[in-house]
Structure formats: C-alpha cells, structure tokens
Design goal:
About 45% of the residues lie in helices and about 25% in strands. It has about 300 residues and is α/β, with parallel strands linked by helices.
C-alpha cells in the first residue's frame, strides 16, 4: 500500500532468466525500495517460475506472457541476448513502457536504430546498463574527469578470461558472447567511459589480437586519442580492467567499484529519474545506438583484414 503523499513504486518487469538475471538484475530489483518487481518472463516456463518464485513475483512465458508482463509493468528490464532484446524493446516502448536495457542494445545498427526511434516516438525513458556509468565510485570519477578536461590521451584495457583454459564461468555458456567475443561484450563498457570524457569518436581503427582479442585506436572530437584492448580469452592471470587518462593535470586511473548489483541499482535509479522528469539520461537508447555504430564499424574492419 502507498502512503498518501509518497511516490508509488515503479513496477518493473524482468525479461530473461539466465545467469545475469539470476545474479544481478532479479535480486537488485527485488531488493530496491522504490521498485515493485512486477514479474519475470522467460522462454522456458520452469526457469521463469524458479526465478520469479525466489523473488516473490509472478512468472510469465510465451508470446502472450510478454504482453501480460507489459500490461502489469511501468518499465521493463532486459537480461537477454542483444538481438533478442532489441525487437522486444521496440515492442515495449510502443506499449508505453520505460526501458532498462543491457549492453549492447543490438549487434546491428538497424536493430539499435529501431529501438532508439521507438523510444523517441513513444516518449518513454531509457537507460542502457553500462556498468561503470552507474556504479557510484566510477560514475563520480567519470563525471570528475569530464569536468576537468585537458586530456591528451587515454588507455582502456578490459580483458576477461571466460574462454581461458580451466574457466568455469557460467557466462561462458552464452552463445552470443562466444560468437561476438570481447568487442561486443566488454567494448560498450570501455567506450561508455571514454566518450563522455574525451568526446565522440570521429576516427576508429581496429586490429585483431590473439583469439577474440581486439585492439582499437580512437580519435575523439576533443582532439585526444585513446587505445582500447578488449577480450574474453585472456589467461586468468592476465585478466582485469584498467582505464587511465593522461593530460595537463597528470594521470588518473579508474577506481574499483562495488560489483554489478550495486551498479544496476544505480541504473534503476537513473531510469526512475528520467521517467519522472522527462529528461533523457546520457546513457540512453540514443547513446546505445552510437555504441552499436562504433562496434559495427570495428567489426567490419576486422572482417576485411
């Protein structure tokens, strides 16, 4: 029951039942004091039922289940492969629901553009969950570096070991990650930090490294340049995240952050604020489209080398 004078909870439905949904999104939504988890949808009824029951929410499945979840929700969060997410996000936006999407929005420019256009036409709020943009420690650091300015160059390295020998990560079972590799999985994270500080990318060069590793050289609208190394197949001892900026005031490196669940709560808060005020968040569907455009350009270069 809502106390008079208080804001009713934002009803958010979750689409997806995989490890990301189980470990991050469902528990974060269920625990958020300003949210009512309005339901969990999954392609497999038993998976949807198990996750929903654990969170005290109803379960949905099938095509009719998508419509029922949208009817019961003010917004929807996605824990689905990007090219499954995109058409469902268009459907949700056209139904007037706010969107909390995973990155990348889609792996095709057309797919991402359809989402951005649907959001604009419907006038709904949208947020793309790039982890470092919403973790309290790193979001504050990004804003500080953007305000300081005067950066000369930057370096970002995001290496995972999902596909290294001996890996037992459940995320390695994701078919789209295995197909698309580090460029598409962790590339959005790196770009989402570099672009707000250095400006949009006006020139991009991509080159392959070992296994799925990709190297990018970027020229930004500020005049600064950056290099990016991305991959999911590094040896366990070589995995890690490093991002640093170098400029007039010296060097600064990204701080540590308190996990994806805390960051996802920040993304929920950002979506609620955008929905309440009507002011788009900087990391919205339009920004998600830009990320897809850049990643697609890099992928094209890699295929033609």
């Amino acid at each position: 029951m809502t106390t008079p004078g208080t804001t009713p909870p934002l009803r958010i439905g979750l689409l997806g039942t995989g490890p990301w949904a189980r470990n991050t999104q469902a528990p974060a939504l269920a625990a958020h004091p300003g949210v009512e988890l309005s339901g969990v949808w999954g392609r497999r009824a038993e998976a949807a039922e198990a996750l929903a029951t654990g969170c005290g929410a109803p379960a949905y499945t099938g095509e009719e289940g998508v419509d029922a979840l949208l009817e019961a929700s003010d917004a929807v969060a996605f824990a689905l492969p990007p090219d499954v997410q995109a058409p469902l996000a268009v459907r949700a936006a056209r139904a007037g629901r706010h969107l909390l999407m995973d990155k990348p929005v889609a792996t095709t420019v057309d797919g991402a553009r359809e989402v951005a256009d649907a959001v604009a036409e419907a006038g709904v709020a949208s947020v793309v969950f790039c982890t470092l943009r919403f973790a309290p420690e790193t979001s504050a650091w990004i804003a500080e570096q953007a305000a300081v300015g005067g950066w000369f160059t930057a370096r970002a390295q995001w290496l995972g070991s999902l596909y290294a020998a001996g890996s037992t990560s459940e995320y390695a079972e994701s078919p789209w990650r295995r197909e698309k590799g580090g460029l598409w999985d962790v590339g959005p994270h790196a770009l989402s930090v570099l672009i707000p500080v250095l400006g949009d990318v006006e020139h991009l060069t991509a080159a392959p490294g070992p296994v799925d590793t990709v190297h990018l050289i970027l020229r930004h609208t500020s005049g600064a340049s950056s290099t990016v190394t991305l991959g999911l197949s590094a040896p366990a001892g070589a995995a890690g995240v490093e991002i640093e900026f170098r400029g007039e005031r010296g060097t600064t490196a990204v701080p540590g952050w308190d996990g994806a669940r805390t960051a996802f709560r920040g993304a929920v808060d950002a979506l609620a604020e955008a929905a309440r005020t009507g002011t788009p968040h900087a990391c919205d569907a339009r920004f998600g489209l830009r990320l897809t455009e850049l990643l697609a350009r890099a992928a094209t270069q890699l295929r033609t080398r």
